[in-house]
Amino acid sequence: MFYNLLFEVIKSLSTEEIELFKVFLKSPFFNTSNRIILLFNEIIKFYPDFNQPELTKELLFNSFSSKSFNESTLRNLVWKLSNLFDEFLLQIRMKNEKLESLNYILKEYNLRYIKNAFDFKAKKIEKGTADIELDKIDDYYGKYQFSLNNTNFHVIHDKIFSKKEVVEQQVKNLSNTGLLLFNAFITELINEYINIMSYHFNYDIDYKDNFIFDILKYINLKNIFKSIKNKTKYDYILELYLKLYECYCNIENDKFYYEYKNLFLENLNKLNEDSRAFHFGVLINLCLRKNNLDTSKDEFVNEEFNLYEIILQNEYYKEGKINYLPTYYFRAILFSALKLKKFDWVQNFIEKYSNNVPEEDRENIYNFGNAYLYFEKGEYNSSARHLLKISIDQFVFKFDIRNLTLKIFYELEDYDKAFEVLHSYKEFLRDSKLMTKDNKMLLLKYINYTEKFMLYKTGQRTIDIGRIKHNLQKEDKVAFKNWLIDKADELIQIGKKRVLAS
């Protein structure tokens, strides 16, 4: 376990970062041990998997020592190497977080009272120079820290009481600092509110007795925003969060969704990668929620798909070091397009974007996409062929695969295999520790209804399909409800033909 933690960190590095780390290790400011360099050079030979049988503790020890193997010595060096990785990652983060790193520099200038350097650096930051595009950084707290550093420096080191205009400037600075802090407070508060509401929707968690809800209830956000609008060029961020809050407070009123979405798209190019990803994710979750509230119309099925098209066309799924399409995004886009029967679009999507997911998932995701596509087209044998090519033990969508497998065998009328899948699926659900009780119940109902249909088709004519359909239509929480109703209708039609034939 101790060694695996180190390997896990190394696996997260790109090849470019590994080369940078080699340079980092050679810097005597951070590392003076040549044995650590030798150890790392041996470890990196097994990058990125680190699961080769020849990777042993003895091999690692021999990379830096000719003495007899000593576990304690090796563990000590691995521990030091791990600490150096932490230091390296900190350096990388500080390099990427320019405003935050400059805030630390300003603090040091303040502590050392380096007045001219402080003023020079602060003015450059304020004007958005020094390679910082302040209009594209929506981290209010970082701006607050900068304003606070700047104000504190002059309060401490300037003789502010000697000139009235200096005092007036300090008051103005304090007001701006308070405004930035308030914006940081409100946006984070709304963020936590959204997280709680997501838990409520997904897991039926009670949210009423909650401090965050109480605070937001007693703050008149609209009036506050009116008073601060146009006092900072970043007020669009606060307005966007207020629209988001309104949207969740009025989840059943579509008007608020579109107001939030339109404001987001208007300001899309002003936001950084993290913020874009956050708001796209919120919009998609809202579409899913609205689909659940009203399954009778396709408005938000189309809306969800349109959002995915924007994300794909502009590669907004790329975030930070993520330069590939995450598998969960592939799955969501696939299912969204299949709901709308966009079969040609889906085929092109699979061919193109199955090569854009992480390399280890490409073959599985290609077959996964085609299995679902062919099933929706009614080509069940082709669907089954692709499904059999998926390595289920290594693939994340194990529930999806079982759901589809049961449907395929049902459609092919291979009931022996269907019953086998059905019973193993029930056991799998019972043993699963990762699924909530509600989600388990959704799938168990789907399995139970399918089982009744199969029993009917294999000879148990005492089963009343009409009553089953009636009960099914009243169900609020059952997976694949539309598919089950279609199967019930098919059986009812078969029953009618039998009556006529007799």
N-to-C CA distance: 70 Å
Number of helices: 24
The rough form would be described as flat
Query: If you average the pLDDT, what whole number results?
Result: 86
List low-pLDDT spans: 129-138
**Gyration radius, in Å:** 30 Å
Q: Tell me the number of structural domains.
A: 4
Share of helical residues: over 70%
Strand content: under 5%
N-to-C SSE series?
HHHHHHHHHHHHHHHHHHHHHHHH
Molecular structure report:
Helix content is about 70%, strand content about 0%. It has 4 domains: about 1-95, no CATH class; about 110-270, no CATH class; about 275-395, Serine Threonine Protein Phosphatase 5, Tetratricopeptide repeat (Alpha Horseshoe); about 395-500, no CATH class. Helix 1 runs parallel beside helix 5 (about 70-95), helix 16 runs parallel beside helix 18 (about 360-375) and helix 18 (about 360-375) packs antiparallel against helix 19. The chain is mainly α. It is built from 24 helices and no strands. The chain has helices at about 1-10, 15-25, 35-45, 55-60, 70-95, 100-110, 115-125, 140-155, 165-205, 210-220, 220-230, 235-250, 255-265, 275-295, 300-315, 325-340, 345-355, 360-375, 380-390, 400-410, 415-430, 435-455, 465-475, 480-500. About 25% of the residues are buried. The chain is flat.
Q: Helices, strands, pairings?
A:
Layout: H1 2-11, H2 15-25, H3 34-43, H4 57-62, H5 71-96, H6 98-112, H7 115-126, H8 140-157, H9 164-203, H10 211-218, H11 221-228, H12 235-249, H13 254-266, H14 273-293, H15 299-314, H16 327-339, H17 343-353, H18 362-376, H19 380-388, H20 398-411, H21 415-431, H22 437-457, H23 465-474, H24 481-501
